[in-house]
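[step 3/7] inverse_fold.run input=structure_tokens len=569
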């Protein structure tokens, strides 16, 4: 037996009209209180906001970060002109300028460049004298020797010497959001200053902090520019369709207060907008417009039939209660179901839209009726020209569908089945760079690194042994050697590095740098002695803490992949 809401709808409509002033005042007070939350709007531009929190490997990542803290860095790159190397006076002067200027960046730590490179294998400096003292032929010779240094080409220099890094370590692991934004701004300011002082040198900078800042700027731009455009278009369409500026003004007030309440409420609830949830206010505005259009349409039709303003509004609320309520309920359920997804960003998007639907629905029955009654009282009602918008075309469409209903049904059923066959063409794979705009310095940085270094994502494995000093076991090191050898032979791996490379390098160095001795030591005592030797030289570019844990129970394996997608990784 169907449920009849007619009596309830009539009583609710009557109450909304009789108590419209009270509802309006309560709505205004509520809106003022909730809209104050707009001042605490927060943004989260990190990739972590997009990643699942149910991944079983998250605990392992946290343990690894405790054992081997991931440094916070900014990487400047200097790109040589086509067919040349970075070993030119102009490029190296720019690198040297970076060395002199980087301390202006807040929380700046150590800067690693080719100018202060000391080979861990030979303990020799790449640049033995001031760069002003080198001739072009000497620079060319330096370039030839530099590309032979495998540690240098894995760290600061491309294989063809056409690109070099300036890796800046930042003491900012615990920096707040505002501090990270300040650091990002300082990094970009230094980049711009270097470009101004060295106009002939091509340089870029990349950092997670800059990505966060760029993402936040894009989100703010969406809220401050795209949102008003969407509202304006909706209002103009309503004004044109209903031939009424006053009804357009009602829509404007309705969508603005709905968006303000939604954003203010989610701010009070502790939400931060991310790259996905930032579009939630746009969806809320569209839903608010849809609700109000139902009310406006029947209201204007009632006015055309000769009803007074109050009677017309009461009729419209009563007539639309069930369809608007069911639409709001089912839409809210649909967006709330996004809480079942694994991505926090999508969960936030669904929750914010669901909150917005509640406000759009509530204000449709509390604030919108009073606004429409008062606004239409201010305008002139020309009852002689109240033709429903597009009435004649709609009548023809209705007649056509009534005549050809079976053919239309079969046509669209076939279309649905045909498009369903295309579902396997959808791909769930993605590249994290897809979240970065194709234009601009940030994307150019990653494109240059990918092109010159053939380098994509970086992976780090931590291999834990059950005992302290477990990594000095020769048998364990041999197993790691087999593992890294297998990794190095994979098609999509650009380079692999581990403690084994350090031990083999020390072994070669101790034996008069003879390449024939580039192999692992065969006793645990020798391994421990080599680790002690490594601690003595402990390069800032290759600190021992990055390879082994303090109690020698774990070691890391670093993998640089080529340009591959997320699933390929």
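[step 3/7] decode complete -> sequence:
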């Amino acid at each position: 037996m169907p449920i009849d809401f007619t009596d309830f709808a009539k009583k609710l409509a009557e109450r909304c009209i009789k108590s419209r002033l009270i509802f309006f005042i309560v709505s205004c007070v509520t809106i003022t209180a909730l809209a104050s939350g707009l001042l605490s709007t927060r943004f989260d531009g990190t990739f972590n906001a997009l990643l699942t929190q149910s991944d079983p490997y998250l605990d392992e990542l946290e343990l690894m970060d405790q054992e081997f803290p991931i440094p916070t860095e900014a990487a400047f790159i200097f790109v040589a002109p086509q067919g040349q190397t970075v070993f030119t006076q102009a490029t190296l002067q720019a690198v040297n300028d970076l060395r002199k200027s980087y301390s202006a960046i807040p929380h700046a730590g150590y800067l690693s460049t080719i100018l202060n490179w000391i080979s861990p294998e030979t303990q020799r400096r790449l640049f033995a004298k001031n760069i002003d003292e080198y001739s072009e032929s000497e620079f060319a010779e330096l370039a030839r020797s530099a590309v032979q240094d495998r540690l240098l080409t894995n760290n600061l220099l491309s294989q063809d010497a056409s690109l070099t890094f300036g890796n800046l370590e930042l003491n900012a692991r615990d920096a707040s959001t505002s501090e990270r934004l300040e650091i990002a701004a300082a990094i970009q300011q230094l980049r711009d200053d270097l470009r101004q002082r060295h106009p002939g040198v091509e340089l870029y900078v990349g950092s997670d902090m800059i990505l966060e800042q760029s993402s936040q700027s894009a989100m703010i731009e969406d809220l401050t520019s795209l949102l008003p455009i969407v509202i304006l278009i909706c209002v103009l369409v309503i004004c044109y369709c209903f031939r009424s500026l006053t009804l357009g003004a009602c829509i404007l007030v309705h969508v603005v207060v709905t968006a303000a309440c939604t954003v203010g409420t989610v701010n009070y609830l502790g939400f931060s907008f991310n790259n996905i949830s930032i579009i939630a206010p746009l969806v809320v505005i569209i839903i608010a417009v849809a609700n109000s259009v139902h009310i406006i349409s029947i209201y204007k039709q009632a006015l055309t039939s000769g009803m007074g303003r109050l009677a017309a509004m009461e009729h419209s609320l009563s007539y639309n209660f069930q369809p608007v309520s069911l639409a709001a309920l089912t839409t809210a359920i649909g967006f709330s179901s996004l809480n079942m997804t694994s991505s926090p960003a999508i969960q936030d998007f669904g929750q914010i839209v669901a909150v917005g639907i509640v406000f759009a629905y509530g204000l449709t029955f509390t604030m919108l009726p009073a606004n429409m009654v008062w606004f239409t009282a201010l305008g002139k009602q020309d009852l002689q020209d109240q033709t429903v918008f597009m009435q004649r075309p709609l009548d023809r469409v209705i007649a056509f569908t009534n005549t050809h209903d079976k053919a239309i049904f079969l046509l669209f059923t076939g279309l649905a089945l045909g498009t369903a066959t295309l579902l396997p063409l959808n791909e769930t794979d993605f590249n994290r760079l897809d979240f970065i705009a194709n234009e601009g310095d940030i994307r150019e940085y990653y494109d240059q690194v990918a092109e010159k270094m053939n380098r994509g994502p970086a992976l780090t494995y931590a291999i834990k042994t059950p005992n302290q000093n477990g990594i000095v076991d020769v048998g364990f090191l041999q197993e790691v050697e087999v593992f890294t050898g297998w990794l190095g032979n994979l098609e999509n791996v650009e380079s692999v590095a581990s403690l084994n490379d350090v031990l083999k390098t020390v072994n070669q160095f101790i034996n008069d740098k003879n390449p024939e001795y580039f192999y692992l030591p065969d006793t645990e005592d020798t391994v421990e002695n080599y680790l002690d030797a490594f601690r003595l030289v402990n390069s800032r570019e290759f600190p021992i803490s990055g390879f082994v844990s303090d109690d020698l129970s774990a070691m890391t394996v670093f993998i640089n992949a080529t340009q591959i997608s997320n699933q390929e990784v």
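[step 4/7] annotate
Residues 382-386 have pLDDT under 50 and may be disordered.
Residues 6-42+225-389 form a domain with the Multidrug efflux transporter AcrB transmembrane fold fold (CATH 1.20.1640.10).
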